[in-house]
Specification:
Elements lengths: L2 E5 L4 H12 L3 E6 L18 E5 L14 E4 L6 H6 L1 H22 L2 E7 L26 H21 L3 E6 L2 E2 L10 H11 L3 E4 L5 E3 L1 E2 H13 L6 E3 L4 E3 H12 L5 E4 L14 H7 L7 H13 L3 H6 L11
This protein binds uridine-5'-diphosphate (UDP).
Uridine-5'-diphosphate (UDP) binds next to helix 5 and strand 8.
Length: about 325
């Protein structure tokens, strides 16, 4: 049985990756420090023999007994609100955490895939974004702690690949959504759906003309799986190229949820990218991958998930900070 370590395993993407690799017959070693992750996302896996959980912060030395075939590094705060609350941890998990996992991959002769992001392109001046674009990032803005940690992560991963011959993969993840997103992570999809369910107005930042392209989680996970199994070590964009403005998107959520609330406009956060759309030519050619789930279908499933949450989660946790869990 192949053994895979997944960091950030209790998070949104990490937990779906745990499901995927369990389904594929792997022994999954899940790791999370639970600052932004939630054990509820993986508790259904605890009874399985081929699943184990380690409560650990990967910014500190990582030890795994026995052999390892693969490592997926998905530990990181991943929303602008999170980086504002825990900027130092965001920098550390992308830099020190990645360094530790590269060391582990080298020691165990394991293949390591790191989760990079469309944020490496910053507020892009090239549209759609190809992997060759170097980006337009403000290193000292509020998003700098995430963007620069992820850029450093790519750099150190390439250095370990070139200098130490470590077998590495780099996925650049564009906006992804689905069940198990956190209601209080500030991202636009949980924000809008949560607001609709609580009977609050939908908060569009700026004039809503900024665009995003949303990928359903099952498509994202399939793309990551194919990249891990491929022989390609340079970065690959995985995302859904179907682009929409945030104000049009708010209208879609209004008709999906049937809310009678209205859209209200708030100030645009600093360095909020004006447009974002992945060029997925590489993923299509190299991995024979493209997204299959359209926004209408994916949003319906996501809406059902948020609707199924209990009142405590929907009302109290939506506005709760996780800072009290920090040391
Ligand atoms: N956004 C918004 N209202 C909200 C939350 C987000 O209009 O309540 C906007 C945000 O300013 C950004 C877009 O939606 O332009 C996507 O935001 P998200 O945080 O989901 O992801 P990112 O900006 O990192 O792509």
């Amino acid at each position: 049985m192949k053994r895979i370590l997944i960091t950030g395993a209790a998070g949104f993407l990490g937990s779906h990756l745990c499901d995927k690799f369990i389904e594929k017959g792997f022994h999954v070693i899940a790791m999370d420090n639970l600052i932004t992750g939630d054990l509820k996302n993986i508790e259904h896996l605890f009874p399985l023999e081929n699943f184990e959980f380690h409560h650990h912060d990967v910014s500190k030395f990582v030890h795994i007994a026995g052999n390892l075939d693969y490592i997926l590094h998905f530990a990181s705060p991943a929303s602008p609100i999170d980086y504002l609350k825990i900027p130092i941890q965001t920098l550390k998990v992308g830099s020190l955490g990645t360094h530790n996992l590269l060391g582990l991959a080298k020691e165990k002769d394991a293949r390591l895939l790191i989760a990079s992001t469309s944020e490496v392109y910053g507020d892009p001046l090239v549209h759609p974004q190809t992997e060759e674009y170097y980006g337009n990032v403000n290193p000292i803005g509020p998003r700098g702690v995430y963007d620069e940690a992820k850029r450093f992560q790519e750099a150190i991963t390439m250095a370990y690949h070139t200098f130490h011959g470590v077998d590495t993969r780099i996925v650049r993840i564009f906006n992804t959504y689905g069940p198990r997103m956190r209601l209080n992570d500030g991202r636009v999809i949980p924000a809008f759906i949560g607001q609709a369910l609580r009977g609050e107005d939908l908060t569009v930042f700026g004039d809503g003309s900024q665009t995003r392209s949303f990928c359903y989680v099952d498509d994202q996970v399939e793309g990551i799986y194919r990249l891990l199994m491929s022989g390609y070590h340079l970065p690959v964009n995985i995302g859904n190229p179907n682009e929409i403005s945030i104000s049009e998107f708010a209208e879609e959520i209004i008709s999906l949820t049937g809310t009678t609330q209205k859209v209200i406009y708030k100030e645009l956060p600093v360095d909020d990218p004006m447009q974002r759309q992945p060029d997925i030519t590489k993923a299509k050619n190299l991995l024979d991958w493209e997204p299959k789930v359209g926004r209408e279908e994916g949003l319906k499933i996501t809406y059902e998930y948020f609707k199924s949450l209990d009142e405590n989660t929907l009302y109290k946790q939506a506005h709760k900070s996780f800072e009290k869990y920090m040391k």
